[in-house]
Each structure stands twice: as C-alpha cells, then as structure tokens.
C-alpha cells in the first residue's frame, strides 16, 4: 500500500505499525526508524529429552525400533529411530474440559519427534507390557498449544506415527508432562517513532491494561511503499521519551514483543529491499538455509500484485545454488518472477503458486539449468530445517518437486 510518509526524513522511517486487530482495523499506529527487538538471535532448538512410555504394547515401526535397539550389534542407530510418535489420549466419558475432537485424535495430543529408541524392559505395569525408553523432542507450538504440566485425564494413549500408522499403545508416560518455562520475552523499543493519533490516545491512558497494542509490522522502503510482513507486535506501552535519534521523534518502550523475531542476519535482506527491488538474481546464494528462508519471506512480503503472465511461456531456473529446499524456493521465485521474485516459501505455498495467481498462468514450461545440483542435494531422508521446528520431518526431494510440477501441468526440462 502507498503511504504518505515519503518526506525527506533523517533518520528514514522504515517500519510502519498497523493495528489490524482492534476497533479501527487497518489504522496506522505510527512509523519508526527502528524497532529494537524486531531482529534477534534465534532461539536454539530445544535439547532432546528422555521419555518413557510406561505399559507399552508396541506395534509396527515402534516394535521394530525396540527390537533394533535391543539387537546386540549392527546398524542399530539407523533402525532404532522414528520421525514422530503421536500420543493420542484415550479419554473416558465425558471428555475433559477444553478437549476438542479432531478427525484424528484431539487437542490434548502431544507429539514426540526425532525420536531415538533407546531400549525397553518389562513394565512396572505387568501384563507382558514393556516400558520403552526414548530420547527425542516434544513439538511445541507456542501460539496454539503449550504442553501442560500434567497429563490429560486418560486411560492411556494410542500411539501413532507421522503418517498415522499405528505404533501400539501405552498406559502412561514419564518425562512428557512437566512444567516448561515460557521463553523470556525480549523487550521492545520503538526507536525514532512518529506516533499517529490511535497510538497517542493509547499512550495517554492511565491503566496499563488499556495500553495494549497489537500491530502488524510493515517494511517501508525508500520510495514510501509499505510491505506487510507476518511479524506481529503484541505489547503494552510502558513509557516514551524524546528519541535519541531525533528530538522531534519518540523512543517508545514496550513490555511484550514478537513471538518470533527476524533472525539478526535478515537485517541485511531488509536493508536491501529498503533501497528497492533486487536487480540481480542469486543475491541469496551466499546465505545459509535460515536466511534463504528469510529471503523468500521478504520476496513474498514485497511481491507486486499484478496479473499472471499468459500461459505457454518458458521460464529458466538457475539451479546452480539449489543446495537445499530453501534455495529451490529462492531460485524458482526468481525463475518465474525475476530478481527478488516469489513463487512459494514452503511446500504448501509452492503448491498454491503452481495453481496460478502468483505470476505464471498454466500451462508453462520450466527449463531447470544445472539440475544436477538439486539431484545431489534434494535427496530422501529426515530433514531438520534450522529455523522452524514444525517443519522437521521427511525431506522434500527433487522427485517430490518434479511430481508437483507434473501434476500442475508444468513441463520441466532438466539441463
Ligand atoms: Zn482430548
């Protein structure tokens, strides 16, 4: 969207806060030179934990993994491993309060993932059952479901794997349900801020409860164009003072912050977009997977809204730097939509782009140059993207991508 903040301003005002959640939806709260806390060192992935499935009657791959873990020798590690173990509680009637049924399972489910099966012993529960020892991670989605400190009311758990295959059952668990401290919120300061009326009103309120703001962050470029990012600031205004950058502006301190700030390294990407759209391809090629992901995100946020090019065209994908799936998303974005172009930044989004409406109308032809790079790197296995625990799972392979192109009616020529 276009905004009126295109005056010659020093320092440049680069971040626009828009309230899209309350009353006057879409109201600009203010624009600022910087937001301390918008970029931060990413949290390290959680350490693996020890879990016990008590009174376990294993089935399928879990049974095989337990046998492999007990085998005296051989390739034990490779076989005694499972991508995921879902714990699906078997509730009595009535189900506990807050429980929501899904097609498979309910909202009380927990997921262990990247699970190493260490071994088993006869269960304290008897009945020929075993207690299975695991080492893995609990999948935590802070915005949807924080794991409770106590197990749900249940007679036991049905166990299943990532593709819903049955893994048997257990009666209870050790190590899954306990207090897990919430991550410490990083303090946020709006630096060099020019508040608009809704924010000024909020700042004048006496009670902290009434000074809560929730706003999406838009990146404003040198030409005054604002691109909405997915970053949401949720915080209470604590105080304000004349800015250290410019006495005509304010530094506004907040309590609260961002669920997931940009990683520090992404500053460079947003500095580049501030100056204008990238003019060359492959400026992302030197980045690691995490920053390539941020590159594709910035491409999404800045994408121009314009009609698709007509069907029947040929696009060239420079495959030289497709050494990971994030590199593929960057490369296919530039193949279809030019330097800084976007054409998906995860598998679902890519699938969506293939259906049209994202730059290229079907059918089209794609010439994939230096396809051998992706052939060597996008291979089957278990993938741990460094930036997003929820996408830990089966790796996206080159064959997966070629299958998706084929189903979308895109002819791919590998060079
Ligand atoms: Zn439930």
TrEMBL record:
The cross-references to InterPro entries, in alphabetical order and at most eight, read: Barstar, Barstar-like_sf
Highest taxon of the lineage: Bacteria
Domain Barstar (barnase inhibitor) stretches: 316-377
Query: Which family does the record claim for this protein?
Result: Belongs to the barstar family.
| Record's protein name | Barstar family protein
- In its UniProt entry, the species of origin is given as Microbispora maris
